[in-house]
Structure of Molecular chaperone TorD family protein:
Amino acid sequence: MNPDLRLEEAIGTSGGADSLVLGVNDAGVDDVNGARADEYALLASLLLAAPDADFLSRLSRLQGDTETTLGLAHVALGKAAASAAPEAVRREYFELFIGVGRGELLPYASYYLTGFLNERPLARLRGDMKRLGLERAEGHFDPEDHLGTLCEIMSGFAGARFVVAAEDEQDFFERHIAPWAARFFADMENAASARFYRAVGALGRIFINIEAEGFAMEARRARDRR
């Protein structure tokens, strides 16, 4: 990941783990983890609600390193935001994630891993959240295995708002995100209802694959040090 790439301006106040109740840490965060926190926060914001006109305007100014796949995905998202009308994106979000009866996509770990909602992946997640001292905030009713919530948690880990050991962060990613998130984002890229969200799907798929590669590299280094 390019540590020079910062997304705070694009994310604005929309990012962050506002659906969770967690401890806050003021410890410094290096550039790479800051960029990871921003990326997860951006994805969480776009998965949990349709972007309003102000958010789309900020996203339209998003830039990236055109020599990397992630940077090109940022550029594509910026172009998609620049050409999108807020009302059209709101309707697109409804068709994708809510729908009449159900949306075209179900962004839940339980569904992607078992074919049903509220299954064992959700129970395992709740157990891990309790062990790590995380809990859902009042007023949020979506099951915790919603990918937007999982991205909020990862943003909190990377940005040191939620203090856990590096091994716990990697374990959380490998247990709750790696088995299905890239597949979900690929489905988003190809969803019939998706227009603006195709660019979100591409960004999410590329970023999750980078994260998986990064955690695998850390695991190999840890084994080599033993």
In short: Residues 1-5, 13-26 have pLDDT under 50 and may be disordered. The first strand starts at residue 20 and ends at 21. The two ends are 27 Å apart (CA to CA).
